[in-house]
Amino acid sequence: MPRFKTILVTGGAGYIGSHCVVDLLNAGHDVIAIDNFANAVCDEEGSPALKRAQQITGKKIVFYEADLLNKPQINDIFDKHPIDCVIHFAALKAVGESMQQPLLYYQNNLLGMLNLLEIMRNHECYQMVFSSSCTVYGEPEYLPITETHPTGSITNVYGRTKYFIEEMLKDLSAADEKWNIISLRYFNPVGAHPSGLIGEDPTKEFTNLMPFMAQVALGKKPVLTVFGNDYNTPDGTGIRDYIHVMDLASGHVAALNYLGSNQVGLKVYNLGTGRGVSVKELVEVFERVTETKIPLKYVDRRLGDITAMWADATLAREELGWSTKLTIEEMCTDFWRWQTMNPDGYPKKSKKTSVIVNGNS
User: Where is the NAD(P)-binding domain (predicted)?
Assistant: First the structure.
């Protein structure tokens, strides 16, 4: 049995959260998931993604529709359940939107984390895996990026919220040795569960590359908009380290296992493949494996974007025993399976209600 039995997953109904929940259940953990549906789809019964996660694993998830800005609501959940560890995904996450609405991002991401940490402390729960981002590195000084790369010179508000939270966690763990926190700096998650049952279904305008690309391949959108083809890269398009969402999910289980047997204070790890792939290269692989054609429309660079970024994930391999296993081709194949099985994404709620779903759903 895992040392940490009951895991609270904030943002559990979202893209990365729901895939992580599958791996947590398969690893023997009990999952309490919360989400306010800011980035996740809801239907009349709660979260379709989490219902499908139950279908995939054959195990139950306790789910609450809840918001980290509502402290009494979150406190009640901690009162009801003996939570051993928190995996904190919940955050607003769109780079472009963060530049347009900075106050919204600071309120949601920073105050939400403050509330969560205070409630955890009050319930003597000091174990956390934090969903951070490679955006904390800003424009790279060198590549591939190691965890010792300077942070703080960040090009967008979303990345600054992740950086400020990491600084908060650094101060907290220095002030109180009970805290035991791993911050996982993600690179660019793509793909879907191989079953095709769960995947990425954006609730806002398609800002992530692969969902937009798949919509074009399905004929639902006319062209793929590419932000910038004048970067200092071999083909002029931005370079990123794309990581399969299931590899990312397994990184959280590895982090939990490490926390279970080590007191680290605060430790950061990169989760990436170590390989940079340009937007144009990714499109070409997607076209090849899906046998579709994706017309491109190049527009100006997007405010806040950087030229190139890929990880050195040696530390995660050596200390967490984690490494990626899935290829770019598998990322595209799995996402296309999800998209073709669910061309309109998850079933949607007919109208917005404020029903809170408690207990097993």
Answer: 8-334
Q: How many residues belong to the chain? A: 361
Strand partners, 242: 188
Query: Would you name the residues annotated as active-site residues?
Result: 158
Q: Strand 180-186 to strand 127-133: parallel, antiparallel, or no bridges (unpaired)?
A: parallel
Q: Is the pTM of this model over 0.90?
A: yes
Tell me the pLDDT band of 350, cut-offs 50, 70 and 90: low
What does 324-340 look like in DSSP terms, one character per residue?
----HHHHHHHHHHHHH
Pair of tokens at residue 306: 């950087």
Is the model's pLDDT at 1 over the cut of 90?
no
- pLDDT tens column, 103-141: 999 999 999 999 999 999 999 999 999 999 999 999 999
What is the maximum span of the chain, computed from C-alpha positions, in angstroms? 55
Residue ranges and CATH numbers for the domains of the chain are 6-341 (3.40.50.720)
Instruction: Provide the residue type at 168 as one letter.
Output: M
Give the three-state DSSP class for 30: strand
Residue linked to tokens 């990880």:
311
For the cut 50, the answer to whether the pLDDT of residue 358 exceeds it is no
CA proximity to 48, closest of 18, 27, 77: 18
Distance from the first to the final alpha carbon of the chain: 24
What single-letter amino acid sits at 295?
A: P
Backbone angles phi, psi at 302, to 5 degrees: -90, 135
d(CA 270, CA 262) in angstroms, rounded, equals 18
Q: How far from chain centre, in Å, is Cα 194?
A: 18
Question: Is the pLDDT confidence value at 354 over 50?
Answer: no
DSSP strand pairing (30-35 vs 62-65): parallel
How many angstroms separate the Cα of 324 from the Cα of each of 208, 247, 273, 355? 21, 5, 6, 39
* Window from 8-22, 43-57, 259-273, 294-308 with minimum mean pLDDT: 294-308
